[in-house]
Amino acid sequence: MIRFGRMLLAAALTVGMAASVAVAAPASAASRAAASATDTDIRDRLEAVPGITVLEEQPVVAPYRFFILSITQPVDHTNPRAGTFEQRFTLLHRGTDRPTVLHTTGYNVPEYAFRSEPTRLIDGNQISVEQRFFTPSRPVDPKWEQQLTIWQAATDHHRIVAALKPIYSQKWISTGASKGGMTSIYHRRFYPKDVDGTVAYVAPQDVVNDEDSAYDRFFTKVGTAACRAALDAVQIEALKRRGELVARYQAWATENQRTFGIVGSADRAFEFMVNGTTWAFWQYSLESDCADVPAPTASSDDIWNWLDLIYGLDSNTDQGIQGFIPYYFQASYQLGYPDVSLPHLKGLQHYRGQDRAQSYIPRELVPHFQPLAMLDIDIWVKFAGSQLLFVYGGNDPWGAEPFRLGPFTRDSQWYVAAGANHGANIAALKPDETAKATAAVQRWAGVTAPAASSFGASGAPGYIAGLDDHNLALDRRFNR
Q: How confident is the model at residue 464 (pLDDT cuts 50, 70, 90)?
């Protein structure tokens, strides 16, 4: 029903990357001098780590260095003799005297240098990890239910931390956005001492998969009544024009060499696209974008173009789904997946109730859902979690079922950025909340804030050309 995989990947690259944040104060002159001898040969040190291969070093603005690496991982951490695979990750090296951010994407890893918000807040190194089973980080003959679990992935991250801590011996902070934020919490649950704090952005937590009424309530309250009515109306009109628009969709697919084998047909893919437009709208648009929602009297061209803009024609094709099958498998196996009732579309849908994660994976993959997996995570957060910081967007549907702090959660914070979407971050909070959250992250990392922020060419505090340009471009695209 929703482009969860595609959209969360975008979020992993955009959430927490707003450039308007202060950079933490640099380490003392003595500690920097002590680190300089090893910093000059950091590539040699990386290449000497057993199991790690330096695949590429890309030029990046000084004093940073940027590497694409891989680490040899067991395909099954419970059975080391079952074989290995190469897991890809990147390193933005700032200095061995600086703290390090473990950035879990939950999906593929970008092959370019960027800084997440926590990395800028602490002026640190950043390790960004590709989730197992996302190509090319996939075993040759994968055993999905045995090998693609939240514990197996957490153990991947644990081994990366263990391999690199001898080099990066200062404090560590983990972070991630959306599915990447979920992944960072799973890692903490199984290996709570690997890092000194975790910042999870817009991370959903579906504790009881069959109970999704929170999402239905969200869609009756988000935005204005007029905007909600406009979104309902364009969905209804699109399904009323199903014959015309599905024919157009099939013609578009044929022309662009796209197929619908996984979802089943152009008709089913079209309905799932229409189902997901309201979710997609609130995930990445602002309330001001309601003015651009086509009226029921709009031309078919206008409705077609809006569907493509908000949801994406390619999203439900085999080619669009292929790279995200590991996510849809995880959602069907352990993570859970939202089921929104869409009562206004009842009577117009041909496949009501079928728009679930299982519809986006090949038929030969049949995951057996584990209902206790997320309950275990929930109990850990509420009764044993510590140094956790959660940030949500007030208008983001994924925040309808969030992680919650509990009676025994220690030294942790939880925030909602009013009016924000899936791009919510610390900088989007109220000023006093931003200050409190920033202070916690810097305290966990063992650094202090500068007396005054320095402004780069962009006019944003702490901005570094060549590193934060990607973030700014992505923020403009998804948070226009």
A: confident
